[in-house]
Batch of 2 targets.
Target 1
Amino acid sequence: MEIGKIPNDILKNIILDKIKENRSEVLIRPKIGEDCCGIDFEDNICVMSSDPITGTANEIGKLAVHISCNDIASCGSEPIGLLVTILAPPNATYNDLETVMKQLTGEAASLNVDIVGGHTEITSAVNRFVLACTCIGKVKKEKMVTSSGAKPKDKIIVTKTVGLEGTAIIAHEKENELERAFGREFVCKAKKYINNISVVKEGVLSGSFGVSAMHDVTEGGVLGALWEIAEASEVGVKVDNSLIPVGEETRQICEYYGINPLKLISSGCMLITCSRGEALVKLLGDNGIPAAIIGEVTEDKRKVLLDNGMEIDIAQPGSDELYKVV
């Protein structure tokens, strides 16, 4: 199999179809396109999500916190706590572990999130640090947002620019090569993209505003997220390539390595569907979050990217473009 997330058809056949439904309290269950579960706690819904960081060793603690909290934010929920599992290779040093913990605690504090437990071990099963986080949040029932609520005629909105996480990872992993090609200032700017990978603020704002669906853009990039939100909602999407925001550093790095920024891991970018798209874009902008309408949800279930007058079908996500480079 290819490196990265298991393809959605295999995920459905081998994993999801074998999961039994036993408890009525579980309101949101495993499903393609859904990153969180929701458990009924009367007035509130407990929202949880779990994710590993495996694609890089740089800034792994920072990434682990934000990736997990972003999933919770995509439900319109504020993250509360994190359970962290740290698997370190035998050659890890005391300083390595201390660095990872400083990243974890620093980023958690920046989001007002507590680290509430987890597990740490040294194991020969890994050859570099692997972190897995489970994030816990809560949200009022009437404010709950899922990835499966998109409706025909909703506007499709993305926040910030696509490829943020992938750009930062490549800039860290390929720093010397990119410095030779583009210069140090360029690489420093690209590395700083990692400071923009949280979507907690836009998730909570959008949830309070009232949106039909949200999905943070991770592996598979914005095209993968569009496919997943359409699949989960049983609708179609039509988006215009020229309207999708791509940062200059992302564009140049992707051209240099011959990869597609629309299929590059993009934590920090939230995909939102909403009937009042213009009003939401204004609200986000007023709160310092750039956002753009890139298309519309359709009824015919076809997933289409408009590019220079051509209609290109959006396929289910494969291995992320990141793995072609690092």
Target 2
Amino acid sequence: MPAMPNGAARGANGSEPSPYLELDRDAWAELGEHVRQPLTADEISRLRGLGDELDIDEVQQVYLPLSRLLSLRVKAARRLHRKQEEFLHRPQPPRTPFVIGLAGSVAVGKSTTARVLQQMLAHWDEHPNVALVTTDGFLHSNAELEERGILQRKGFPESYDRRALLRFVVDIKSGKDEVEAPIYSHLVYDVVPGEKVVVRRPDIVILEGLNVLQPARVTEDGRTGLALSDFFDFGIYVDAATTDIRSWYVERFLRLRETAFADPASYFRRYAGLSTDEATATAESIWDSINGPNLEQNIKPTRSRATLVMRKARDHSVQYVRLRKL
């Protein structure tokens, strides 16, 4: 997707018809000019992921308009749901959370995006209970992946317990009072046995993960099952040039070598003693053999399934937004 020139909005009045509207950063930022910024600089600093260049201007110009758009969509979905239940003569419908799927590559900054959106959306009175769940907890355990011979394909679609993940989203959209999800530890690089996060009567659920926008699989007998995205009310894809994401991954790896990898409990403790050149070469090898192929084969093809795409520049700032029209 080429970047839009300043001030351009493709798909607007007078332009070639398109199912999408693309707004450059300036045009997008104008949509939040008269909306109060709910987060402080300290809060933003705590939400920032390793290597992300997130500041108060980025939150004001990019995430504030997005949070207001999502808030409008939440309210509209509630009205539609209420009208449908009235039509069906169901005076006391179950609570149905608004579900946002958030996808993107390793190291693109989707976890920071998810955390910022969670905090901003929770500041609006209309939906104070915003849950954030990552799909990492639904990865098969390392032991299971080793048994299947796919430990080196961790993060690829086949490395997840897709049935459990789909059941989780179905339970959320069914309006269950409590739904549990497994917890993953990046320190030990594995699912934590017996540990769960409990989602209780949320207004909004953000489900963040590499492959959440994947289409349904076609079975051997030719039938198509359900996809996670069938139960999403809104899909977001965090995008950037592949060369930039690769550089961000290497930069993050070098920072982790000096921080988390140095922890004796870390699964990646063996990388802590590498020289800068050795660590760079290792990170590049991991990207080229695992994360890069996963991005090209599985993650990037789901970009067109998103309701909104956030395109980042080399400095991590969002250049433009592409929004699917209603």
